[in-house]
Hints:
8 strands; two-stranded antiparallel sheet; homodimer
Amino acid sequence: MTDPVTEDREQGQTFMPKFDAAGLLTAVAVDSADGSVLMLAHMDAEALAKTQETGFAHFHSRSRGRLWMKGESSGHVLQVQAILVDCDQDAIVLQCVPAGPACHTLAPSCFYRRLEGGKLIRI
Amino acid sequence: MTDPVTEDREQGQTFMPKFDAAGLLTAVAVDSADGSVLMLAHMDAEALAKTQETGFAHFHSRSRGRLWMKGESSGHVLQVQAILVDCDQDAIVLQCVPAGPACHTLAPSCFYRRLEGGKLIRI
């Protein structure tokens, strides 16, 4: 059985993002052209609001402890076309048009290696 | 400039997963048929090892504080075909063949709603 709050969170129309103890939710940026995963980062309420307001992906840097817009220095911004929300509302998918390589290493995606036999193989 | 450890982590062949303070990394399960995002969950070292050992996705439940195999009660397991690792090795993508709906709500994916005008619309 599902309690009414969980039922509402999972089936309802009300957006009630569930931030974790650090005030963050996980965001997966995917390329809206082919659905491939570009990068993963975290958002606090401020980053989420900025993303919705501007249409460009903003995140909260855990290492730097601040808001950042993806591409703010490189120019490789992510234009957000749609935001999908998961069942328990603690994770979102950003369907994006990337303005360049999504990874700071200049790879198109951060996921450029496959684990094979304990080794990482570039794909 | 990139320091040698970071350089090795980002460009090398050595798998050195970077678990967070809680001992977890983030795993994004995608459908290997079309690349769509199915679900997002967390793995500790044990869950990662079990996934590699068995070929079925295992996670660490933060709420229940234990290892679980996705589908252990529903039968809706995720057969892992490949594991991709991101630049800083704190997130992975699991390319999976799902044995049924990936979401516990019986939706094919946990991301079954789109945020539109502040409301969640079922897709």
